[in-house]
Specification:
The protein is α/β, with parallel strands linked by helices and about 280 residues long. It is built from ten helices and twelve strands. α1 crosses α2, α3 runs parallel beside α4 and α6 crosses α8. The protein starts with a strand and ends with a helix. The relative contact order is 0.15.
Length: about 280
């Protein structure tokens, strides 16, 4: 399976996906780039440091923030970012959005994939858009019902999304355990509610069982600077690099195919060294 010209599968070296957020409300402010110049500079730097794919967010979906914005504003941000990156570098672009209209506009602007943290479940039109355009989709673990934080329920909700994809004849899918999105409560509709374990314990559980998720297909992991790291060590986003890198390396050892990160240079160097040591 390919995102643009990039081969993404369980049988090739894991790929690095750099994060650019065109959304000022995003939790990690260093990732926020809102002007054409800022976006272009960030994209060129990511390509220089070895990223394989760039993921664009135009609306934060962090479950502990009130982040829902008008869809017209998300479309405006997304189109600007996608078009700018396509001019600035040669990397394929993934559009990170749970809303079908935004995905459609992003693909028309040049996006090569859709990254839906709600696994085709939040917006009933998303599967149709992905199927019609033929782009790959990253399927996040998500449920509108309360679930367990155990890996069995993560696998279950991912299988539900894969069933939706199959019904719509979507063949190019990547699964994502949605680190940070399973919580006791949340402030936006993109959270999956659970009540049987602390949210940070669930995230560790999911990371420890990525090899089981890999049986469903290629796995994308986004653990970079996430809140469970901050909870464990009492650190802010800009202080979470080292634990993030450790989690990313462990994810690769557990068969992750894509590492989505805010810190492209450090992640590429860490995973390259891991590859050298394992060869």
């Amino acid at each position: 399976m390919r995102i643009g010209e990039v081969d993404v599968s369980t049988k090739v070296i894991p790929k690095v996906m750099g994060i650019i957020n065109a959304s000022p409300e995003s939790f990690y402010k260093a990732s926020v780039k809102t002007s054409e110049q800022e976006i272009a500079v960030a994209a060129k730097a990511m390509q220089h440091y070895g990223a394989n794919i760039i993921d664009i967010g135009a609306m934060s979906t962090a479950p502990y923030l009130e982040t829902v914005i008008p869809i017209e504003e998300e479309i405006r941000r997304m189109k600007l970012a996608v078009k700018t990156i396509k001019k600035a570098c040669d990397l394929p672009v993934s559009a990170d959005t749970p809303r079908a209209r935004v995905a459609e506009e992003a693909i028309a602007a040049g996006a090569d994939a859709v990254n839906d943290v709600t696994g085709l479940k939040y917006d009933s039109d998303m599967a149709d858009i992905v199927a019609k355009t033929g782009v790959p989709v990253i399927i996040g673990a998500y449920s509108k019902k309360t679930v367990s934080g155990g890996v069995e329920d993560t696998i279950k909700v991912l299988k539900e999304s894969l069933s939706i994809a199959k019904t719509h004849k979507i063949k190019a899918t990547i699964v994502d355990p949605s680190i940070g999105f399973f919580r006791g409560d949340g402030k936006n509709p993109f959270v999956t509610k659970m009540n049987d374990m602390p949210w940070y314990a669930r995230d560790i559980e999911a990371l420890n069982n990525l090899d089981r998720l890999a049986l469903l297909g290629p796995v994308c992991v986004s653990v970079s600077r996430k809140s469970f790291i901050g909870h464990l060590f009492g650190t802010k986003g800009d202080e979470r690099l080292v634990p993030s890198i450790i989690c990313e390396a462990m994810a690769v050892m557990k068969r992750a195919s894509v590492i989505r990160t805010h810190s492209v240079r450090d992640t590429v160097q860490a995973l390259t060294m891991l590859q050298l040591l394992r060869s």
